[in-house]
Design goal:
The protein has a seven-stranded mixed sheet, sandwiched between helices. It has 18 helices and 23 strands. 40% of the residues lie in helices and 24% in strands. The protein starts with a helix and ends with a helix. The longest helix is centred in the N-terminal third of the chain and has 27 residues. It binds glycyl-adenosine-5'-phosphate (GAP). Glycyl-adenosine-5'-phosphate binds next to strand 10, strand 13, strand 16 and helix 13.
Length: 516
């Protein structure tokens, strides 16, 4: 774990040093849990969004995309349940004045107890070797079964408290487990209370409650309120989906772990409208489609897993997370939710406008059920970087070049596709040729031109940005119109004719390689 924490710190500083992500308004010491994407970060993020958008809207003829406004009529959030139920249980420490989520403090305590059990099991595995029967040991070892029983009892109680919104019960669990402030060790807690996560602001010309607007905490509601507009204007029939990418805002109590939990972030959401009764079929199908989307990037199958929700959100009758093995452990990357007709039914009743689909084949009208896939773009960014970040020794290299840091990004996602490097910058004939090649390649994809420093250092810089191909223009180029093309991960170099460059690189970076 210490090693992983180390890797996480390295990823965060790599992001800053190489122009991927900066703290927001850094000259004023930053704003907690808000970040700005730099030149390479915004390219990578745009590519992640393109991958998602194409896989939804381009590859499915029954999914269309929209771009709804961030501000919505305030009644939207009443109907969606966010005004009443989009809360986290908050607790303050009276000594340290620090604020925490009570459920997270309890979950951390459960994880500590489970860790104790795992440590005992690992010790026993080392002791008994091949003959070790883990299942039997878990059931019969008194200490292990006591730990596991204890963690289950607390988890069950936490689930009850969260489902019933029982803040007193959460306070009791904090006391019973003698949970202390992780920073100071103080147990001097306030009572636990509900904290609504929506940011609000005021509409210019209306005073008071009437003019209270919210920054949307999820993009999904822009899809729900446009459901019939979209269905009618695109002549879709059920089942069909609406996809959207956009900003969402949540006043997270504890925002930490870099871009994992932010106050301003981006979501990529798709609502799939189905006939009531068909929802579980599509829920299962979207679970498997979304997992395939992640695996297509080359992410190891051992880094991704499903995790069923124990506490369902106020709108869901089934929910599962796709979790990724971040450097700080397996955590939610994407959610797939069966949202029933909760949202459309409430919007219909509060707006007084019918939100029903008329099925011409059966002559019936009904409010569709919805299966949602929802992934945070920033979280996906962090998952991709965590998977791509690699440190390795370079064979036959010496000094500063003996070790390299590279981002093994899928070529379709890499911010820069190709770097154009004249071998020497003080040879005008090489520079002129390199600039000509650059001018030709940049029409097709994003390239970088670099003539500073020794060639080895330029390769290292491109490795650190995740650039999959480097083109070097040398004296042979002037003779026979060929260049060397270096591949980032293998570092192999091949000589290819200049007039084949565009096509060769285009094939390698094509989205087709992900969608095939
Ligand atoms: N419309 C459903 C919905 O919003 P959610 O599980 O609350 O469900 C969906 O959020 C996804 O949005 C999460 O899986 C995560 O990737 C991302 N997300 C949620 N809160 C976030 C935050 N504070 N910072 C970054 N990403 C967040």
């Amino acid at each position: 774990m210490a090693q992983n924490e180390d890797v996480f710190k390295k990823i965060v500083s790599h992001c800053k040093e190489y122009g991927f992500i900066y703290p927001s308004s850094e000259i004023y010491d930053g704003l907690s849990a808000v970040y700005d994407y730099g030149p390479y970060g915004s390219e990578l993020k745009n590519n992640i969004k393109t991958y998602w958008w194409k896989s939804m809207v381009q590859l499915n003829d029954n999914i269309v995309g929209i771009d709804a406004a961030i501000f919505m009529h305030p009644k939207t959030w009443k109907a969606s349940g966010h005004v009443d139920a989009f809360n986290d249980p908050l607790v303050d420490n009276k000594d340290s004045k620090k604020r925490y989520r009570a459920d997270q403090l309890i979950e951390d305590a459960i994880a500590k107890i489970e860790n104790k059990a795992e440590k005992e099991i690992e010790k026993a595995r080392a002791r008994f070797g091949e003959n070790f029967d883990e299942k039997l040991y878990r059931e019969t070892n008194p200490r292990v079964s006591e730990y596991l029983m204890k963690s289950k009892t607390i988890q069950d109680k936490l689930n009850v408290a969260m489902t019933q919104n029982n803040m007193e019960m959460l306070g009791e669990i904090l006391q019973e487990l003698e949970i202390a402030d992780p920073d100071t060790g103080s147990r001097n807690w306030t009572e636990v209370r509900q904290f609504n996560l929506m940011f609000n602001t005021q509409l210019g010309n209306i005073a008071g409650e009437e003019g209270k607007l919210y920054l949307r905490p999820e993009t999904a509601q822009g899809i729900f309120v446009n459901f019939l507009n979209v269905q009618k204007t695109t002549r879709q029939k059920i089942p069909f989906g609406i996809a959207q990418i956009g900003k969402a805002f949540r006043n997270e109590i504890v925002a930490r772990q870099f871009i994992f939990r932010m106050r301003e972030f981006e979501q990529m959401e798709m609502q799939f409208f189905v006939k009531p009764g068909d929802e579980m079929k599509y829920y299962e199908s979207w679970k498997s489609q979304r997992m395939k989307w992640h695996l297509a990037l080359g992410t190891g199958a051992n880094k991704l897993r499903f995790h069923d929700h124990e506490n369902l959100a106020h709108y869901a009758n089934a929910a599962v997370d796709i979790q990724f093995a971040f450097p700080f452990g397996f955590k939610e990357l994407e959610g797939i939710h069966s949202r029933t007709d909760f949202d459309l039914k409430n919007h219909q009743s509060l707006s007084g406008k019918k939100l029903q689909f008329f099925d011409p084949e059966t002559n019936e009208s009904y409010i569709p059920y919805v299966v949602e896939t929802s992934i945070g773009c920033d979280r996906m960014f962090l998952a991709i970087l965590s998977e791509a970040y690699t440190e390795e020794m370079v064979p036959d290299a010496e000094g500063a070049e003996a070790q390299r840091v590279l981002l093994k990004l899928h070529p379709a996602l890499a911010p820069i596709k190709c770097a154009v490097l004249p071998l020497l910058k003080n040879k005008p004939e090489l520079v002129e040729k390199a600039k000509k090649i650059m001018d030709e390649l940049k029409i097709s994809f994003l390239c970088a031109y670099d003539d500073k420093d020794a060639i080895g250092r330029r390769y290292r810089r491109q490795d650190a940005l995740g650039t999959p191909y480097c083109i070097t223009i040398d004296f042979d180029t002037l003779e026979n119109n060929t260049v060397t093309m270096r591949e980032r991960d293998s570092m192999t170099q091949t000589r290819i004719p200049i007039d084949e460059l565009t096509k060769t690189i285009e094939d390698k970076i094509s989205w087709r390689n992900l969608f095939k």
